[in-house]
Design brief:
Pfam families: DUF1272. The protein has 74 residues and is largely without helices or strands. It contains 1 helix and 3 strands; from the N terminus they run ββαβ. Strands 2-1-3 form a 3-stranded antiparallel beta sheet.
Length: 74
């Protein structure tokens, strides 16, 4: 199951699990759309392709919550 990380690792923008606009690589490094564009769709951590992260239905977030661990180190 995806962690659904709560923020962009590059700029710290909030990325809710039930909203579109997040992009991930195969290691789940997570970035917002603006940073993904700036990175030319490549993860700066592993070099992998950044793809749209699927959303998690709000009705399932109670049973399967998103991660609360923020990765932005600003």
């Amino acid at each position: 199951m995806l962690e659904m990380r709560p923020d962009c690792e590059r700029c710290g923008t909030d990325l809710p699990a039930d909203a579109p606009g997040a992009f991930i690589c195969s290691f789940e490094c997570t970035f917002c759309a603006e940073c993904t564009d700036a990175l030319d769709d490549r993860c700066p951590n592993c070099g992998g392709e950044l793809m749209d992260r699927p959303t998690r239905a709000a009705s399932l977030l109670g049973k399967f919550p998103a991660s609360a661990e923020r990765k932005y180190r600003g």
